[in-house]
Amino acid sequence: MERVYSLSKIPSHSLGREPSFLAGSEAHDGSLLLFEPPDYESRTIAEDPGGFISLCNFSRRGRRYAIASTQFRPGFDAAACEIWIWPLDPAPDAGPVKKFPMPYTHRVALTDVGGDLVFLASTLCAKKDFKDDWTHPGGVYAAIVPDPLDADWEFVPCLEGLNKNHGLDLAQIEPNGNSGFLVSAMEGCSFMEIPKRIQDPWPVTAIDTEETSDAFAFDWDGTGTPQIFTIQPFHGNRVHIHRRRGDAWEKSLLTDEIEFGHILWAGELLRRRALVVGWRRGASDLVVYWKKGPGPEDYEMETIDKGIGPAQMIVHRDGDREFLIVSGHGAASVLLYELTKE
User: Would you say 22 and 10 are in contact if contact means Cβ atoms under 8 Å apart?
Assistant: First the structure.
């Protein structure tokens, strides 16, 4: 799958414990494919319009739907970007159920706000006068997913003044705190809290003002308070750990030896605290850092795979089985790993 980029895990119709998922290519003529166990033979959901840069999905009345940000071409060529929604069951031959323009939408997500299913779209700018023009900021915008789906989607701004955003990750940054999204952009890393109603203000907490590509929160230290991991600068060479110290966040360097950083995930794997990092240039590896003890430097690194140029990753668990779903951009392949203890 050439230039495979975006991924979204979907509810499975299989009786097995392996994951079902969507994978999209960012190529001009790229496809959106559905993979389901047990054979994982791909089913084409769409071959038009290409540029599938970000995916999410939801179910309604027993039917599954995919939402994609499309026509987002390499080099930030996304003035023609549109949001498309496809039915996944029983077959997609009827085409999309809805599409609407939303230029420069780099990331999409779904969340619950006061009992409503809400769609989030994060735009990396409002417009461009030339490729490297960052003088027209974008932001994060939200709309309740309407019923029926072909009704108008009414968007409200959540967070504006963002350029070159890349990360939009669901998180909690306080023990028992409210959920929100870590938003990464040229302006830094911020936590955007989910309000009780979509029309209410979305409270924003600044974590770091340095240009940030991706962020993820997890209690890697086992202290009871989450730490925040970041890739800096945009597609940068450094992975940092941010630890709360009073009212501020203290930053320390984990590694500066990655190139074009693109994956950052933290959580438990095989009942161990883990941080997964992937990058798309140079060695183009996917690695895991295992936490070994209470000290900041108590960890060890292990390579999961080499030379695959990973773009996105999803963790899937079912009972005692654990999987990684990876878009191997540099390997032109969708990859499924099952994790096992030696």
Answer: yes
| Token couple for 117 | 């299913």
Nearest of 271, 285, 277 to residue 255 by alpha carbon: 277
Please give the mean pLDDT across all residues of the chain.
Answer: 94
pTM (global) more than 0.85: yes
Residue 231's closest CA among 261, 209, 206, 254? 261
Element counts in the chain: helices (H) and strands (E): 0, 27
Two tokens at 193?
């809290």
Tell me the residue length of the chain.
342
CB neighbours of 320 closer than 8 A, spacing ≥ 6?
none
Quick one: DSSP state of residue 329? Answer: G
Distance (Å) of CA 187 to CA 92, 141, 212, 296: 40, 17, 8, 27
Can you name the residues that pair with 214 across neighbouring β-strands?
231
Dihedral sign of CA atoms 42, 26, 85, 124 in order: positive
Cα–Cα distance for residue pair 191/210, rounded to 1 Å:
14
> DSSP characters for 266-324?
EEEETTEEEEEEEESSTT--EEEEEE-SSSTT-EEEEEEESS--EEEEEEEEETTEEEE
Contact 70, 22 (CB under 8 A): no
pLDDT tens column, 19-34? 999 999 999 999 999 9
| Identity of the amino acid at 266 | A
235: alpha, beta or left? (left if phi > 0; alpha if psi -120 to 50): left
Q: Say if residues 155 and 121 touch (Cβ distance below 8 Å).
A: yes
If phi over 0 gives left and psi between -120 and 50 gives alpha, with beta otherwise, what is residue 120?
A: beta
Q: Are 104 and 97 in contact (CB under 8 A)?
A: no
